[in-house]
Amino acid sequence: MKLEKKYPSEVYLNGKWLKPDEAYVSVFDRAFMFGDGVYEVTPFYKGKAFKLKEHLKRLQYSLDQIQVTFDAFSLENLMYEALDRLNLNETDAAVYIQVSRGAAARSHFIPEKIETSILLYAFPVALEGFENKTWEVMATEDKRWHRCDIKSTALLANVMANEEAIAAGFAENLLVRKGYFTEGSHSSLFFVKYGVLHTHPEGPEILSGVTRAEVINICADLNIKVVEKAVHIDELVEVDEIFVTGTTTQIIPISSITHKNKKVYTARKDSITRKLQKVFIERTRK
Ligand code: PDD
To answer: Example GO biological process term (predicted)?
Structure first.
C-alpha cells in the first residue's frame, strides 16, 4: 500500500519561507531540466539532530563533485528553523535539502554565471517501531549510473527500481551489478555470513550511507567484524541475516529475497541485526 504524503506547510526557497503553492522555480532550473542538483535528508529525533555534521559533509562532497560552489554548513541554522516553523521539535522529523545548480538557458555545458538555488524543508517521519518490521524484498539489476556516491536528485533509476518492487508487493528492491549486490533503491545493505558483516565497499557504486557508517561504528564497539566486500548473489546460501539501513529506514531485517520470480534467500537468523538495532536505538535516542 502506498502511504499518502502531504506537502509541508512551509518551505525555504532561495531566502524566503513560502507556502508550497507559492514556492516556484524557473522552468529553466537545471535540477528540473537535467537533474543537475544534489540533496540530503537529515533525521531529527524529537528535535535532536543525529549525525548532522556527517550529513552536511556528504552534501558538501556531492556539491564539490558536481562543481557547485556552495557552503553546505551554512544551512545548519535554517535546518533548525525549519523544524521550529513546522512545530516538529517534539516529534520525529527529517529535513530535506536540495541544491540545484540554478536556472540558465539550456546547454550541456555548465553556464558561467549561474545562481545556486536552495530548497529546504522539514517533514514528520516515523523513526520509531522499525524493530517490529521485517521486509520481503526483490532483487534486480542495478541500472543506475556509475556515480552513486553523489547524492544526485536524478533518481529515476532508483524510482523505477522501487516502483517495480512496490508493484510486485515487495518493500524494497536490492540492486545487483555484475552478480554482486550494491545497495537498495533507497537503502544501504548488509549481510551476515559466518558471524561477519559484509557490505559493499564505498566508491562510485553506492551512496556512502550515514546510517551505514554508524552501523560499522557500532560493530567496532561490539567486536563484530565488518568486511567491506560485495556479496555475490550465489553466496546467499552462506548468508544467515540480511538487513537494510537508512535515515528513514533505520535498520530493518530482510526476511526473504525474490529474484527473477524465484525465492533465492530466506532469513535463518536475526540475532546480530537485533543487537545492532538495540544499540542504534540507544544512540539515536540518548
Ligand atoms: N536515501 N542508498 C541510497 C540509494 C539511498 O537513497 C539512501 C537513503 C541510503 C541510506 O543513506 P543514509 O543512511 O545516509 O540515509 C543508501 C534517502 C533517505 C532518500 O533518498 O530519501
So the answer is: amino acid biosynthetic process
Residue 53 among the catalytic residues? no
Q: What is the pTM of this model?
A: 0.97
Task: Give the position, in ligand 1's atom list, of the atom nearest the Cα of 148.
Answer: 4
113 C-alpha to ligand 1 centroid (Å): 31
Q: How many angstroms separate the alpha carbon of residue 206 from the centre of ligand 1?
A: 10
Write the pLDDT tens digit of every residue in 203-241: 999 999 999 999 999 999 999 999 999 999 999 999 999
- Within 6 A (CB) of ligand 1 lie 41, 158, 183, 186-188, 207, 209-212, 245-248
Nearest alpha carbon, ligand 1 atom 10 = 246
Q: Any bridge partners for residue 180, and if so which?
A: 177, 232
Mutation to probe ligand 1, out of 45, 202, 247, 250 (largest number of atoms < 8 A from CB) = 247
The minimum-distance atom of ligand 1 relative to the CA of 41 is 18
Structure confidence by residue, pLDDT tens digits, 66-101 = 999 999 999 999 999 999 999 999 999 999 999 999
Percent of the chain with pLDDT over 90: 98
Q: In the numeric block, which cell numbers belong to residue 205? A: 557504486
- Domains recognised in the chain with CATH numbers: 11-124 (3.30.470.10), 130-285 (3.20.10.10)
